[in-house]
Amino acid sequence: MIDILSSILILAGVFFYLAGSIGLLRLPDLYSRLHALTKADNLGLGLLIAGLTLHSPELLTILKLLLIWLAVLAASATSAHLIARQARRQETGA
Amino acid sequence: MTELFMLSALGLMLSLFLGLLRVLLGPGVGDRMLATQLIGTVGVGMLLLLSVLLDQPALIDVALLLALLAAVAAAAFTGQQKTHHD
């Protein structure tokens, strides 16, 4: 039962990773690519980690995995914001 | 379960390839930076998968370090661009 649930979560995570990278490749401009990228970061890694936590026997490992997810969430939010502002600044020439 | 982990790692590999294609195509520096962010996150995911697959718990720490350094790269990129323009 746990194996099935974990398989579904991991495969869903990989699906979101692939959807995000296809979006990064296919979407027309930087802002929409930003949108695709954050899906891969947040949902893909989140689901992958949710699937992997079902496999780990120790509490410490689970907490470490969750910490990684939180770090990536913070990093992706910050970098998406910084890159978008940078692109906008270059566009307006300010 | 091992097959599933292998298959997922392969899927992440494909994702990495698509990200590298975007780095190659450009067109702007921002797009390339976005693709680098994606590659970083894919790397984290792959290390986590491999840590279970190869039974190496130390790889989780490597993934944590990679996740922490991802934000630094984007911040350094923006800072460098800013000084370049002033």
Concise structural overview:
Helix content of chain A is 88%, strand content 0%. Chain A is mainly α and 94 residues long. The termini of chain B are far apart.
How would you describe this structure to a colleague?
- The complex is a heterodimer of chains A (94) and B (86).
- Chain A is mostly helical.
- Chain A has 3 helices and no strands.
- Chain A has helices at residues 2-26, 30-53, 59-92.
- Chain B has one domain (15-85).
- Chain B starts with a helix and ends with a helix.
- The model of chain B has no long low-confidence stretch (mean pLDDT 84).
- The chains are: A mainly alpha (94), B mainly alpha (86).
- At the A-B interface, helix 1, helix 2 and helix 3 of A face helix 1, helix 2 and helix 3 of B.
What is the β-strand count of chain B? 0
Assembly type of the chains comes to: heterodimer
Mean pLDDT of chain B: 84
User: Could you spell the SSE succession of chain A in H and E letters?
Assistant: HHH
Mean pLDDT across all amino acids of chain A: 85
Q: Give the number of helices of chain B.
A: 3
Ranges of chain B where pLDDT stays below 50 over 5 or more residues in a row are none
Helix/strand-derived class of chain A? mainly alpha
Percentage of residues in strands of chain A: under 5%
Number of helices of chain A: 3
Overall spatial form of chain A: elongated
**Largest binding interface between chains:** A-B, 45 and 46 residues
Helix content of chain B: over 70%
Major sheet size, sense and barrel closure of chain B: none
What is the CA–CA distance across the termini of chain B?
54 Å
| Through-space gap between termini of chain A | 57 Å
